[in-house]
Amino acid sequence: MEFADRLINWYEKNKRDLPWRHTTDPYKIWLSEIILQQTRVQQGLPYYEKFVANFPTVKDFAAADIDKVLHLWQGLGYYSRARNMHIAANEVMEKWNGQFPDNYKDLLTLKGVGKYTAAAIASFGFKEKVATVDGNVYRVLSRIFDIDHDIASGKGQKVFTEVANELISESSPDIFNQALMEMGAIQCTPKSPRCEDCPFVQECEARIKDIISIRPVKLKKVKVSNRYLQYFVIEHNDRFILKKRAEGDIWTGLYDFPLSETADKPTEFSTGIILENTGLEIHENTIFHKSETFKHLLSHRKLFIEFFHVKLQTQISIPDKHTDYQWMDIEEIKSVGKPIILENYLTKYIY
């Protein structure tokens, strides 16, 4: 039995029952693939169900307000995915007459759709014979065939893609792709793989050579920098000043409080810091509460975050230059997209 047949046979007996595996609708496949980037299935599943319920079609998604999209995305992180999805949905409506492109090459033209996602939509939705190569696939192939190319390098990615395309099933490329990724997800796991009942246990070169722990090879490491945020929670009569984050920074398009951001640990808090960083001049005020330090890890940054709750006796005016600032009550705050760290603070201290 050749590789593809043996793999598919394993898959049919072991696969998880996931909703996006019961459809060939390219829109729903696209939704699932983008949501599951950098996200575990268990975490991504309720988001998928929520998006399908709110936006049953790509037309609904394209017509949605971006603030609603970001609000529904809240907690998943990598918010550029949601913004790119909204752009791509509008591209489908405007450039493709509301129908997703039906081939790998054209799918690549959509905003936020890379090689893996295009291959997934093309194979799952249209049975195009093109391999999907993700982290799970790198792991399985590198172990079974002892491929020692660096998966972070362009050359390494090309080698793995070529191998996967050589192995892919002629008749069932969609099932083959699902099977290869599923094997990496539940059988050939990063730690403690289930080698004893693997269908390729006899041929697996990494097992034979006892090098499973060093496959796949990934040499490039992400440098993580520290960043310090002091948020100013300015309240008057149960209303708070929030701002919408602009382009070119983390959390673009989400709402948070005025703040001070520094690369080094900040000095002690004072109302002068608020004026200096926000243009908001605080006169009569009480420092109602200083939170503990929240820590939040992003892909390239480690954030240290403090919240300073300032209760005003008299409402202050927002300077004309700060068109991104606005007063919002609790219900308005709940309705907009926010960084998850802000939601955690609000839930603990404000709501």
Automatic annotation (TrEMBL):
Gene Ontology terms, MF aspect: 4 iron, 4 sulfur cluster binding; 8-oxo-7,8-dihydroguanine DNA N-glycosylase activity; adenine/guanine mispair binding; metal ion binding; oxidized purine DNA binding; purine-specific mismatch base pair DNA N-glycosylase activity
Similarity annotation: Belongs to the Nth/MutY family.
Pfam families: HHH, HhH-GPD, NUDIX_4
GO biological process: base-excision repair; mismatch repair
Cofactor comment: Binds 1 [4Fe-4S] cluster.
Domain of life: Bacteria
Record PROSITE patterns: ENDONUCLEASE_III_1
Gene: mutY
Phylogenetic classification of the source organism: Bacteria, Pseudomonadati, Bacteroidota, Cytophagia, Cytophagales
Functional summary from the UniProt entry: Adenine glycosylase active on G-A mispairs. MutY also corrects error-prone DNA synthesis past GO lesions which are due to the oxidatively damaged form of guanine: 7,8-dihydro-8-oxoguanine (8-oxo-dGTP).
Residue ranges occupied by any HhH-GPD domain in the UniProt entry: 35-186
Protein name: Adenine DNA glycosylase
InterPro entries: A/G_AdeGlyc_MutY, DNA_glycosylase, Endouclease-III_FeS-bd_BS, HhH-GPD_domain, HhH_base_excis_C, HhH_motif, MIG/MutY, MutY_C
Catalysed reactions, as listed in the record: Hydrolyzes free adenine bases from 7,8-dihydro-8-oxoguanine:adenine mismatched double-stranded DNA, leaving an apurinic site
Key words, A-Z: 4Fe-4S, DNA damage, DNA repair, Glycosidase, Hydrolase, Iron, Iron-sulfur, Metal-binding
Organism of provenance: Flammeovirga agarivorans
Cofactor(s) listed in the protein's UniProt record: [4Fe-4S] cluster
Enzyme Commission number(s) of this protein: 3.2.2.31
